[in-house]
Amino acid sequence: MIVDVHSHLFDCPDHVGDPFAAEAARAHGGEVDLTVRWSQYAATAPADTRTVVVGGKARRSGLWVDDAAVAAYVAARPDRLVGYLALDPTQPGWRDELEHGHRDLGLRGIKLMPMYAGFDPADPAHDDLYAYAERHGLPLLVHTGTTFVSTAPLRYALPVHLDEVAIRHPELRMVLAHLGHPYEGECIAVVRKHRHVYADVSALHYRPFQLWHSLRLVQDYGVWHKLMFGSDYPFTTVDASIEGLRAVGRVPGIPGLDPLDAEQIERLIHRPSLDLLGLA
């Protein structure tokens, strides 16, 4: 079984406004159709794929997906999909949204977008959010790394901020998205320290040298087991992500260095991430 820990639900233009929508072409290779269609996702993923679906809330960047939309989407396919709620703690009412998404809608994790929403994830002011998630076993998927959105402050996307969160909340399960690119070394340093902190490899395969280099750092630091598979659909697909990972695994090692461990790449693709996140 394959577990995709990072896919989105967007219904454009209702959920995605500017500047996010207007600047999405910077993500990779030109315009991206952000409207999510289950039929397209299913056609580009193995039939046994289990998928975490997130919306997203970041008023500063023009992104707002109501948690009820995510709950309805995953309820139609409960054997395949796991839904997360999303929070923008800069906006009033976030605490009520947290409890409603968890208790009433039955969503099983939390998506945070600190850079897009414009908040410091390490600020102790957010400890009530983290304590709630830790207490109720709600894993976090946190955007780390760069973005195409001009209004999003990069400093809030640095993986090192989540080190402070993990120190204060050691039982909180977190996944740092996109291996923190282009701050992969920093991301690796964070996930290596903390038992329940992981990174996903979503939206990396279309920069193959960067992916190869990142996985080489993972190999050198001995943290293959801290990586989880993710796609970042609709920016790319499960099938393309799998092939991209296997392609860099076939690259011969540069002189004096071994190639990437192909067996570890297969373990990454098939990692039982729902078990590790307490969601099985």
Automatic annotation (TrEMBL):
Keywords: Hydrolase, Lyase
GO molecular function: carboxy-lyase activity; hydrolase activity
One Pfam match: Amidohydro_2
Residues of the Amidohydrolase-related domain: 3-271
Protein name as it appears in the record: Amidohydrolase family protein
